[in-house]
Design brief:
- The chain is an alpha/beta fold.
- The chain has 12 helices and 22 strands.
- It has a 7-stranded mixed sheet with strand order 8-7-9-10-11-12-13.
Length: 453
């Protein structure tokens, strides 16, 4: 494996050192780095009085409080648990699954009565306390994947998993204290956590206070806060079409948690010289590669700290960012669920999920190939092709859901000339846009309901 010491030890220790710039703003007009370290020390003392690490649930999207909790955990405090939702039902299910009995909040929340609620005090300390030695290889965090293939799944991450990746990103993109980050993503998801909590914490950059959702809010916030780094989701880049430039200060834009539409990317790049860096990876694997199509990059270029290879069209990786629970072979390689092919000599192209191959009538059907035939059709902005089990459970029926303005018969006519009858979708529906979750990924349950009849 490639060396990662340069991205871990010294920089992680510096995070806990009192000599850091305590007066520097972490949130613009809000919490400073000194206040965050003071809060981290308070949390570690308050939550570890028994000598046991335990687990604390962060029922908040306050990025300064999340940063403080992560520092406390890194210094031997409790493991941080980020719920996928703040609803009482979700928190009750999370407590049942994890046994967590303490919730850290800063606003009124529907917290289960069986959980102890802690509301931490904020305030500038006279002197910034020194935290104890870092424990980067111990569990730091548990968070849920936002995948669209079923119920949210809980994943564990160590300090090295998260901070090594953040340090790589900070160095690779030269993120500096002069940068100002605007993020539209929740810090409860890995993408938002890395780029809107850990990246400013590591680099000294500041984060703009709002978490805007709607296109006018994003444009206004980007210009008002003189944003240099934008963190968005694919549906939000689509919503930004026609909104023009986000301001002359913008130098970097990122997208993750789903594939970015080609036209959405091109439209944004026409008005913003940064283009968009698309991040390929997952909660459990961490980041794997990047591409910026405005620079002519069609394939993903793996991070310099990630080993990779292709076998039988499957991508294998060996990385310091892999969650401890992922299965690996004796040499440390993890087999991803993606099919890929080489792109040039140093990158790869995604060809779809390995589970996109299904059987109908005993014959193989590539769902990604069907999707690839629908996407280029005039009027189609996005498409999802699924194989749904029949009532007997022994066969599958293929269905297609397209977003845009096109007639179902036009899609059917385009497919019938390319595919054998057994491979044609049994049902095709057209809607205005695909249903997505808060993290930008397709809401599979909502899609299934559309085809329930």
């Amino acid at each position: 494996m490639k060396p990662t010491d340069a991205y871990t030890g010294p920089a992680i220790t510096a995070l806990l050192d009192r000599s850091a710039d305590a007066e520097r703003e972490f949130v613009v007009g809000g919490a400073t780095l000194g206040e965050i370290r003071s809060m981290a020390a308070w949390l570690r003392t308050r939550l570890c009085s028994s000598g046991q690490r335990g687990t604390v649930c962060l029922a908040t999207d306050n990025r300064a409080l999340i940063a403080a909790a992560l520092l406390a955990s890194l210094a031997g405090g409790p493991v941080v648990l980020l719920p996928y939702s703040f609803s009482g039902q979700a928190l009750t299910g999370m407590q049942r699954a994890t046994g967590c009995t303490v919730a850290l909040v800063d606003t009124d929340q529907d917290i289960p009565a069986t959980m102890e609620v802690i509301r931490p005090p904020w305030g500038t300390a006279a002197s910034v306390p020194s935290l104890s030695a870092a424990r980067p290889d111990e569990e730091l965090l548990r968070l849920y994947t936002g995948g669209s293939t079923g119920a949210p799944q809980l994943w564990s991450k160590t300090g090295t998993n998260l901070l090594a990746e953040t340090l790589f990103l900070a160095a690779h993109f030269a993120v500096a204290p002069t940068d100002r980050i605007l993020a539209t993503t929740s810090p409860a998801h890995i993408y938002g956590l890395l780029y809107s909590v850990l990246l400013p914490l590591i680099s000294g950059a500041s984060i703009a206070p709002p978490i805007p959702s709607f296109p006018k809010e994003i444009v206004r916030a980007a210009r008002e806060w003189e944003t240099t780094i934008l963190i968005c989701l694919p549906p939000q880049y689509r919503a930004l079409r026609g909104k023009g430039s986000l301001g002359p200060s913008l130098r970097l834009a990122f997208s993750s948690a789903g594939m970015l539409d080609t036209d959405d990317n091109a439209e944004f790049s026409r008005h913003n010289h940064s283009g968009i860096f698309e991040v390929y990876g997952s909660t459990e694997t961490g980041g794997i590669g990047l591409r910026n199509r405005s620079r002519g990059e069609t394939g993903f270029m793996p991070y310099g700290t990630v080993d990779w290879r292709i076998e039988d069209e499957r991508l294998l990786i060996r990385s310091p960012y892999l969650s401890p629970g992922l299965p690996r072979d004796a040499a440390g390689w993890f087999l991803t669920g993606d099919r890929v092919e080489f792109s040039g000599t140093a990158g790869f192209q995604l060809k779809g999920r390995a589970d996109s191959i299904t059987k109908v009538g005993g014959k193989r059907v590539d769902l990604e190939e069907i999707r690839g035939a629908i996407i280029p059709l005039a009027g189609v902005s996005e498409c999802l092709v699924l194989a749904l089990p029949e009532a007997s459970g022994r066969e599958h029926r293929i269905v297609a859901l397209a977003a845009g303005e096109i007639e179902v018969e036009a899609i059917r006519a385009a497919l019938v000339t390319r595919f054998e009858p057994y491979a044609l979708p049994r049902a095709i529906k057209v809607i205005d846009r695909l249903p997505v979750k808060a993290n930008g990924k397709v809401d599979r349950e909502a899609v299934l309901r559309l085809f329930a009849s």
